[in-house]
């Protein structure tokens, strides 16, 4: 196709995970506009002479796009995501109490109000605790 597919190419250093490697090597990290093009790009890189007359060995090209984002930004399941700014979309949960039946524990969420402050680790985002300016304007 005639459109541009590669957004950026960065030079990075790392240890190859195939075989035993004592030292880091230089890699080219390719950023594409559309992750669905990755299979086509990988095939071009592997074919002899298609790009710069060289056959390249792609690494991590088999990883799903979302998993690659998690790796690149050091994110992991059930981890905290720290944001400097965010918007909420409706509906925002209204619950005032959460009951965990398997632990026989009940949390009273009414204690978490707008007075909680800007603490991100202890802030509970419910309908009555989200400031109106943080709600997506197109859905109010």
Strand content: 15-25%
What is the N-to-C succession of helices and strands? EEHHEE
Overall pLDDT confidence: 78
The parts where pLDDT drops under 50 for at least 5 residues are 112-121
Helix and strand composition category: alpha+beta
How many beta-strand segments? 4
Anisotropy-based shape: elongated
Brief overview:
With 140 residues, this protein is an alpha+beta fold. Helices cover 12% and strands 18% of the residues. The chain has 2 helices and 4 strands; from the N terminus they run ββααββ.
Features:
140 residues; alpha+beta; two-stranded antiparallel sheet; 2 helices
Q: How would you sum up this structure, described in words?
A:
There is one protein chain. This protein is an alpha+beta fold and 140 residues long. It contains two helices and four strands, in the order ββααββ. About 7% of the residues have low confidence.
Topology diagram in text:
Elements: E1 6-14, E2 25-32, H1 38-46, H2 65-72, E3 97-100, E4 105-108
Antiparallel strand pairs: 1-2, 3-4
